[in-house]
């Protein structure tokens, strides 16, 4: 596999070696932290102690750290909360995005230009943190999960991307559907959605990653620690070193080292991202980029 | 404007169709398009509630806002919030920190994706290229909590590096909690997270360069370095200028979550930036007016910066974000 054009001639071996070395180093810098975190979370206490606190390759796999995380009430609950907020938020946000994208896709429709400008204008100006907070408060959404879901549900950028794809669907399909007497909702379901599955999937994944990673939203809007999602709980456990609050006082129970419990938490928070990542990369370069360029 | 440029120009309708539609009475158009309007409604309502009204709500920067009294009951104080802001040394400290971090990021972070993209572009094996791309895009999708936690586990006081140093009889390094080098740490984290992702736009720019130019340059005897200097770089220049302008527009926005997570470790003296200043003044301390004033100031200055940078780009013969 070599796409080097003939006219370039043969590359110098030194240049190739240097380039390969640079790329390997760059990849290593990215991969190494993940490797250490996952290895240490899976390693046994003996190996971690013998190695001085971390493990690069576990010789023996132990799930003690993960067991402890799922025994602790707060972490288990926060995982459920994060999954729930992400699922509901993604469904809601995606619905708003696709509906708006189709609603704005027809250049001849009533108020289309004005509404499109209304949406696009938000790309230029972002309101300050305080007025948004006061708005959420005014609407009585403080200390509810809606505060994490609704304020960030609509992004003009996502609407523009999905709209671009909808507009690229051949006109004949719409005309045929209309000829058969289909209304707008029917067209959305039978023409638009089947033809824009890829972009809806990618935009949906981006939205989901955003909800899963949301850290400032819950910090700002949720006072009750019982309601905290995983990202916030992770901050207290990993960055503020509060891991012992989760340990159980069972006689004879040897707690796994704090190090591996912390790393297991980081691994769990990363896992969903790693799971959807292959799908993201598969469509990303094709879908997002062409979508962004075509508009 | 950039926004307008991204609008698709597919299938312009024929002239007669357009005029036929214009003649349609308003009410029948409303009836025909009502499903579309219903579809747009949720998005419009959410944008109205959480973008437009809060934008108008920035007027509390000119009020002595008391949540109990609300917008209508609170007293107008003119520029008092701004003058108390300007006499607050914490505000100037936050502004100075923000400026320093932006400067560091433009000097150290901004070139990295460009260099990476050029390097990636010279990789001839598609499989290797795709692998490297997959690896370096990944950190972009992780939350700042995870990124900071990873850095903590590797470079922190109890992290891998220091344990390695201790077991080998060396003095441990204080990296995560040193106020003097905190801004460099922030920049390093930002590079680790987003430099790979940033290559996408530059790779697209390189891919758009006509390969014939390279061929011609090679036939004229240009070496790899000369081809880079005279073909690749000029080809990327419009995108580089565009990204630089956009970055300047964000000059006052520097990694809010990232800094908030690590502020306690180094203290506000080194870590307070405009956004964290707004957060702690407003949400934590309840000085709504002053905090909103800081936020409003930030928004206005950012807009002015984009306009100024764009003007400069036009002066230099570049296209910038929007055309003249």
UniProtKB/TrEMBL annotation, chain A:
Keywords: Cell membrane, Membrane, Transmembrane, Transmembrane helix, Transport. InterPro entries: MetI-like, MetI-like_sf. It comes from the Bacteria. GO terms for cellular component: plasma membrane. It is a multi-pass membrane protein. It is found in: Cell membrane. Its main location: membrane. PROSITE patterns: ABC_TM1 (PS50928). It holds the Pfam family BPD_transp_1. The chain crosses the membrane at residues 20-43, 79-102, 114-133, 145-166, 187-212, 261-280. The keyword Phosphoprotein does not apply. The keyword rRNA processing does not apply. GO terms for biological process: transmembrane transport. SUPFAM superfamilies: MetI-like. Residues 79-274 form the ABC transmembrane type-1 domain. Gene3D superfamilies: MetI-like. Belongs to the binding-protein-dependent transport system permease family. This is ABC transporter permease. It comes from Nonomuraea aridisoli.
Automatic annotation (TrEMBL), chain B:
GO terms for biological process: transmembrane transport. Pfam families: BPD_transp_1 (PF00528). The keyword Transmembrane applies. Its main location: membrane. The chain crosses the membrane at residues 36-63, 101-123, 135-155, 195-216, 228-246, 288-309. It is a multi-pass membrane protein. Residues 95-309 form the ABC transmembrane type-1 domain. Keywords: ATP-binding, Cell membrane, Membrane, Nucleotide-binding, Transmembrane, Transmembrane helix, Transport. It is found in: Cell membrane. One of its GO terms (molecular function) is ATP binding. InterPro entries: MetI-like (IPR000515), MetI-like_sf (IPR035906), UgpAE/MalFG_permease (IPR050809). One of its GO terms (cellular component) is plasma membrane. SUPFAM superfamilies: MetI-like. Belongs to the binding-protein-dependent transport system permease family. This is Polysaccharide ABC transporter ATP-binding protein. The lineage of its organism: Bacteria, Bacillati, Actinomycetota, Actinomycetes, Streptosporangiales.
